[in-house]
Design a protein that fits this description.
This protein is mostly beta strands. It contains 2 helices and 44 strands. It has a 6-stranded antiparallel sheet with strand order 31-36-33-34-35-32, with no helix packed on it. The protein has a 4-stranded mixed sheet with strand order 17-18-19-20, with no helix packed on it.
Length: 681
């Protein structure tokens, strides 16, 4: 049968060819023709040229419709007729399955099978692989650069040599992992050009040695190549930022040697927001390079303080250093209520400050030490455990044991007053010296072992005079007395409370020649007859001791003798109330203007001896038997006023004869006589 069909087709083909060549349009058959087995020589044409006709062999159409037609057309009984569109796929569809056109899906979709039909589906992130994917036996998962087949519950890669995405193997491939990617051997990620693909890891990479190119800082790297295994090297202009949250720590190795490459000179390691503090090796001073800590300028919040303490200080509001405005170094105790600070209280005023006593324990002596305190607002230094000593030339020879005791082993100097509420005790042969090395000495002599004495040594340089002055504090505290220039013999001087009346260098003599009159405005306001005027210098003047015989006014006095040979305007003088002196040459008495009385002496007792210079010839008064007596300068007999009336009631007058009657013989053989009236001559 196959053979017959073969020959029939051949015959028909030849017949068509013969007919096409040798026939005109009028000669062509326009009706249905039937052929049995025969040989045909030539072509057989059916219908007009290029006109579609149906050729049937044994009832079966031959030629697919007999002309040009669509793939999906009614000509095919198993197809669903459809016009062609770009991107269509021909798939078997429907329960009564036919070949049908499946239109192209939307952008980014993929061809999806549900086990029965196929369709275009959108990619659902993480949702297309429902179980853990175990890549074994050299399996390779490929991607097209998009987010394909994401597995979120874990991917285990083991039992193979390499997961390789290099070049032609996997083009433009990125590895993303939200959870763990466990690689037993090597993981090599590069792109087509071999310059590096992306490894994006949300979690961490552990137990691995990085042998690839740089890791971007965006993904936790440094952007700098590691030069040695387990070594991280920063080179060039690189900034490493660390964001630390609560309880974040950086752990250094617990064994081996930690070696840090030093920062370059004058490069600061900064701390605080806005780099408020910096630490650097500073070389600006070529002769004194130093490790410099730069603290912030005080602004009320950032204070220039370096604080040392234990971990209890961290993130705690201390409240101790709020007032510091100068750079400071503070050490805080464990419970944060005490501090010791080195700082400045003002420009050029360094201080050591604390809110507790400050203790110094040198030489590791924990029992005997210095204590600095402010007790009841009084700055105090005292020895704790023993007495306080200045100097090391000796130890105490006395009972110094109290913490309040004090010893000086060398020379000490005090400028100001020394108040002693206790005793001043000097050892034998010790000196109490005034005004330095050349000043007078007070000391207890021990040369005579049978007569130890207190000796006042007033010798010294030429401008140190041997005078012991006794007076009020207003005179003794640095007053220029102007009295004792040129004194060479030891002298004891005792002055009144209101002693110095005036001192000047511009006294005036204007009498036209030698004079005893001295002028100075206000120079003699409180002066009285008998007061001392000591003149030490002046043109035409004779230095010396003078006394006032007449007080003319507050601006002028007359002295007991001429003091100048001519006029002058530069008399240097001092005015003192009269005072007694005791010297090696004798006793100089206090002078009065007129007869003294008990009102003129501090104590009304017998024994006073006073000179009256107000009388023409002068009188020497003494107090005895509760009365004042005198002798006149003429050497005659002078009796006091209360003896002017004798025992008989006669009041002596000028010209009366005075007789004396002995009324008592003294124990020593001397006698006493009283005056009686003996008549008038």
């Amino acid at each position: 049968m196959k053979k017959i069909l073969k020959y029939s087709v051949l015959f028909l083909t030849l017949l068509v060819l013969v007919m096409s060549v040798g026939c005109t349009a009028a000669d062509r058959v326009t009706e249905t023709m039937y052929f049995s087995a025969m040989d045909v020589d030539g072509d057989v044409a059916i219908g007009d040229v290029l006109t579609a006709y149906t050729l049937t062999l044994n009832g079966v159409p031959v030629g697919g419709g007999g002309g040009v037609h669509d793939i999906l057309s009614a000509t095919h009984s198993d197809s669903m007729a459809s016009a062609v569109s770009r991107g269509d796929l021909i798939t078997g569809q429907g329960v009564a399955t036919t070949w049908s056109a499946l239109a192209i899906g939307g952008a980014g979709t993929y061809l999806y099978s549900d086990g029965t039909d196929v369709s275009w589906q959108a990619i659902a992130a993480g949702g297309d692989v429902s179980a853990a994917l175990n890549l074994t036996d050299n399996a390779i998962v490929r991607g097209d650069g998009g987010l394909k087949g994401v597995q979120t519950s874990g991917i285990t890669i083991d039992d193979f040599d390499n997961l390789d995405t290099n070049g032609g193997d996997i083009t433009g491939f990125d590895i993303w992992a939200d959870n763990d990617v466990n690689v037993t051997n090597d993981l090599d990620v590069t792109d087509d050009a071999g310059v590096g693909g992306d490894l994006n890891v949300v979690g961490s990479i552990t137990n691995a040695t990085w042998t690839g190119d740089l890791i971007s800082p965006v993904y936790g790297g440094t952007g700098i190549a590691n030069n040695v295994a387990n070594t991280l090297t920063f080179t060039g202009n690189f900034s490493l930022g660390l964001t630390l949250t609560a309880n974040t720590s950086i752990t250094l190795p617990t064994s081996g040697t930690l070696i840090a490459s030093p920062l370059a000179d004058d490069v600061a390691l900064s701390f605080g927001t806005g780099t408020t503090s910096s630490l650097l090796w500073e070389t600006a001073d070529a002769n004194a390079n130093a490790l410099l800590l730069g603290l912030p300028v005080s602004n009320g919040t950032d204070i220039p303080a370096l604080v040392i303490g234990d971990v209890n200080l961290i993130n705690v509001d201390l409240g101790l250093l709020n007032t510091f405005t100068f750079p400071s170094l503070s050490v805080i105790d464990t419970d944060r209520d005490s501090y010791l600070t080195f700082t400045y209280s003002a420009d050029d005023v360094p201080i050591i400050q604390s809110n507790r006593n400050i203790v110094f324990k040198p030489n590791t002596d924990l029992d005997d030490y210095f204590t600095f305190a402010t007790a009841s607002n009084v700055p105090t230094i005292y020895g704790t455990g023993s007495y306080l000593r200045i100097g090391d030339a000796g130890t105490t020879a006395h009972s110094l044991a109290s913490e309040d005791d004090f010893m000086v082993t060398g020379t000490s100097e005090m400028k100001g007053s020394l108040w002693l509420d206790g005793s001043l005790v000097l050892s034998y042969s010790s000196n109490l010296r005034f005004n330095g090395i050349n000043g007078p000495d007070y000391y207890i002599g021990t040369i005579d072992s049978n007569a130890k004495q207190l000796i006042l040594n007033l010798s010294g340089a030429t401008n140190y005079v041997p005078v012991l002055g006794i007076g009020t504090s207003s005179w003794s505290n640095g007053t220029n007395t102007g009295l004792f220039d040129g004194v060479t013999q030891p002298l004891v001087v005792i002055t009144e409370k209101a002693h110095q009346l005036h001192i000047a260098t511009d006294g005036i003599a204007n009498a036209g020649g030698a004079t005893a009159i001295l002028n100075h405005v206000g120079g003699f306001t409180a002066a009285v007859v008998g007061d001392i005027v000591r003149i030490t210098a002046g043109t035409n003047c004779t230095a010396g001791w003078y006394w006032i015989t007449t007080v003319t006014s507050a601006d002028q006095v007359t002295l007991d003798r001429n003091y100048t040979s001519g006029d002058t305007t530069n008399v240097t003088f001092v005015v003192f109330h009269n005072f007694p002196m005791i010297g090696a040459n004798g006793v100089c008495l206090k002078c009065f203007d007129g007869a003294p009385s008990d009102a003129d002496v501090e104590i009304d007792r017998d024994g006073w001896l006073i000179l009256d210079v107000g009388q023409a010839n002068g009188r020497l008064y003494w107090r005895a038997n509760n009365g004042w007596h005198y002798v006149d300068a003429t050497a005659g007999i002078s009796l006091p006023a209360d003896e002017r009336v004798d025992l008989n009631g006669h009041e002596f007058q000028i010209g009366d004869t005075v007789i004396f009657k002995v009324d008592r013989i003294n124990e020593d053989g001397s006698f006493h006589a009283l005056p009686y009236y003996g008549g008038n001559n």
